[in-house]
């Protein structure tokens, strides 16, 4: 899917890298999935609704915990901030009021990072939550885009493109209205560029949601 | 995504899909609709909250068929529990859900305050939920409404307990289950199936017990022909 539009002096190249996913690949968690975008691969496992420690329990909703482990080294501040972004998106999409006083644990493992890591984590999390059979009122997907020094918007940048660009943005979009659920941005950009990036990401998210649908129908029709 | 429900029966649906039902008569007649697991009502709309295949049973029952592994207690379901503690007048039973269920010592056939049932920590019990909702602690009983045991109670001297997915136990418990019929032909064995995904089997020898357990665990992802060929091979080796 290649769209090249010319608006004024800026040219936008809106191409997502090839993506793929695998369901239920781990035997111990209640739901698991792996999502691949180009070379970036993230593995997600979900446990829940399970027992919760009394100190963390919430009387009217499920407590969601997210852990993200990098490929090498100990998790640091960058991982913690990504965990919070994923956690807030998942809490908005899950029907947590159906399971009060329980805990839902989502573990993410970075298998390879080649750019757009937070977007890939969001996609893997959504597939794993669906695989575990947790009730959700909408699906969500993550899309990453970068604005390079010339002002071109690139979708799904690789790690090298991220380093060379002046702004990197990740949005979580919901499936019912394609609205922005969460945004995480880094760098300098104008308000107009932000709106253009959101529009480009919303168009790209349609192909991701179509992929979710095809992947789920292929999984259930095989069984 | 709004979609007409009749087109989607038998197809996979995703969370967030809104289902539109055709109203037969445009008068003010209201039709009753029963939404099973996986469907939720939001005002006037019915939307899907879990991904799976949409099923329909005449006249007005709709539900989502999904492959799930974690059990959530529901009233009226019969499950296999493991007794973990005895505290005062209740036993604490682990059923695989998010919290432990309680089982009163008076909820056994013929139990009175003086005649306590013989239940130890670590025993297996086959019981039914009388209270199971999201706000209260789940409660089990081992008697039915007339006070008879009806197959429930402590069991399991010997034998093997293992866990499978919830979809497989529903398939095994359905009235004309082919898997159970094929299994019966191989050799005789006892089996207790709990709706929380736990199965207990016991055959004459340990080896036969392990064979049955392995077959059941691998049955989930096989088609009918693969299963029949495996059963054929097993019965040849056993005899």
From TrEMBL, chain A:
GO terms for biological process: nuclear mRNA surveillance; poly(A)-dependent snoRNA 3'-end processing; rRNA catabolic process; rRNA processing; U4 snRNA 3'-end processing. SUPFAM superfamilies: Ribonuclease PH domain 2-like, Ribosomal protein S5 domain 2-like. It comes from the Eukaryota. InterPro entries: ExoRNase_PH_dom1 (IPR001247), ExoRNase_PH_dom2 (IPR015847), ExoRNase_PH_dom2_sf (IPR036345), PNPase/RNase_PH_dom_sf (IPR027408), Ribosomal_Su5_D2-typ_SF (IPR020568), RNase_PH (IPR050080). GO terms for cellular component: cytoplasmic exosome (RNase complex); nuclear exosome (RNase complex); nucleolus. Keywords: Cytoplasm, DNA-binding, Exosome, Nucleus, Phosphoprotein, rRNA processing. The keyword Phosphoprotein applies. GO terms for molecular function: DNA binding; RNA binding. It is found in: Cytoplasm; Nucleus, Nucleolus. Homodimer. Component of the RNA exosome core complex (Exo-9), composed of EXOSC1, EXOSC2, EXOSC3, EXOSC4, EXOSC5, EXOSC6, EXOSC7, EXOSC8 and EXOSC9; within the complex interacts with EXOSC3, EXOSC8, and EXOSC9. The catalytically inactive RNA exosome core complex (Exo-9) associates with the catalytic subunit EXOSC10/RRP6. Exo-9 may associate with DIS3 to form the nucleolar exosome complex, or DIS3L to form the cytoplasmic exosome complex. This is Exosome complex component RRP46. It comes from Acipenser oxyrinchus oxyrinchus.
From TrEMBL, chain B:
InterPro entries: Exosome_RNA_bind1/RRP40/RRP4, KH_dom_type_1, KH_dom_type_1_sf, NA-bd_OB-fold, RRP40_KH-I, RRP40_N, Rrp40_S1. The keyword Heme does not apply. It holds the Pfam family RRP40_N_mamm. Gene3D superfamilies: 2.40.50.100, K Homology domain, type 1, Nucleic acid-binding proteins. GO terms for molecular function: RNA binding. It comes from the Eukaryota. Its main location: cytoplasm. Transmembrane segments: none annotated. Residues 159-207 form the K Homology domain. Residues 24-60 form the Exosome complex component RRP40 N-terminal domain. One of its GO terms (cellular component) is nucleolus. CDD domains: KH-I_Rrp40, S1_Rrp40. One of its GO terms (biological process) is exonucleolytic trimming to generate mature 3'-end of 5.8S rRNA from tricistronic rRNA transcript (SSU-rRNA, 5.8S rRNA, LSU-rRNA). It is found in: Cytoplasm; Nucleus, Nucleolus. Keywords: Cytoplasm, Exosome, Nucleus, RNA-binding, rRNA processing. The keyword Hydrolase does not apply. Belongs to the RRP40 family. This is Exosome complex component RRP40. It comes from Acipenser oxyrinchus oxyrinchus. The lineage of its organism: Eukaryota, Metazoa, Chordata, Craniata, Vertebrata.
């Amino acid at each position: 899917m290649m769209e090249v539009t010319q608006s004024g002096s800026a040219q936008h190249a809106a191409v997502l890298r090839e993506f793929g996913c695998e369901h239920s690949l781990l035997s111990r968690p209640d739901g698991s999935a792996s999502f691949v975008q180009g070379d970036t691969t993230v593995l997600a496992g979900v446990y829940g609704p399970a027992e919760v420690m009394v100190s963390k329990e919430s009387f009217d909703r499920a407590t969601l915990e997210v852990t993200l482990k990098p490929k090498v080294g100990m998790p640091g501040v960058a991982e913690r901030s990504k965990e919070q972004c994923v956690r807030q998106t998942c809490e908005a999409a899950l029907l947590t009021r159906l399971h009060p006083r329980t805990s839902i644990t989502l573990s993410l493992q970075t298998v390879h990072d080649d750019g757009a890591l937070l977007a890939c984590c969001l996609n893997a999390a959504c597939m794993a939550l669906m695989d575990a059979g947790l009730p959700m009122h909408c699906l969500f997907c993550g899309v990453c885009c970068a604005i390079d020094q010339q002002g071109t918007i690139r979708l799904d940048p690789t790690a090298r493109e991220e380093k060379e660009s002046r702004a990197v943005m990740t949005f979580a979009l919901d499936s019912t209205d394609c609205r922005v659920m969460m945004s995480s941005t880094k760098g300098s950009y104008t308000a107009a560029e932000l709106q253009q990036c959101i529009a480009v990401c919303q168009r790209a998210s349609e192909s991701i949601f179509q992929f979710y649908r095809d992947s789920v129908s292929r999984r259930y029709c095989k069984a | 995504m709004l979609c007409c429900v009749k087109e989607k029966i038998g197809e996979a649906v995703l969370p967030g899909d809104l289902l539109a039902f055709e109203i037969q008569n445009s008068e003010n007649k209201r039709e009753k609709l029963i939404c099973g697991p996986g469907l939720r009502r939001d005002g006037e709309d019915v939307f899907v909250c879990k991904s799976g295949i949409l099923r329909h049973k005449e006249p007005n029952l709709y539900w989502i068929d999904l492959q799930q592994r974690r059990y959530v207690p529901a009233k009226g379901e019969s499950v296999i529990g493991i007794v973990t503690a005895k505290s005062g007048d209740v036993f604490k039973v682990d059923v695989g859900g998010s919290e432990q269920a309680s089982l009163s010592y008076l909820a056994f056939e013929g139990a009175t305050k003086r005649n306590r049932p013989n239940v130890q920590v670590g025993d297996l019990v086959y019981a039914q939920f009388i209270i199971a909702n999201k706000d209260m602690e789940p409660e089990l009983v081992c008697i039915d409404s007339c006070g008879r045991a009806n197959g429930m109670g402590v069991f399991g001297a010997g034998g093997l307990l293992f866990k499978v997915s919830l979809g497989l136990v529903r398939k095994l418990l359905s009235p004309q289950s082919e898997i159970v019929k094929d299994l019966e032909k191989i050799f005789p064995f006892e089996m207790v199936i709990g709706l929380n995904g736990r199965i207990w089997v016991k055959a004459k020898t340990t080896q036969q017990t392990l064979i049955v357990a392995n077959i059941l665990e691998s049955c989930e992802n096989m088609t009918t022909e693969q299963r029949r060929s495996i059963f054929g091979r097993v019965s040849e080796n056993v005899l």
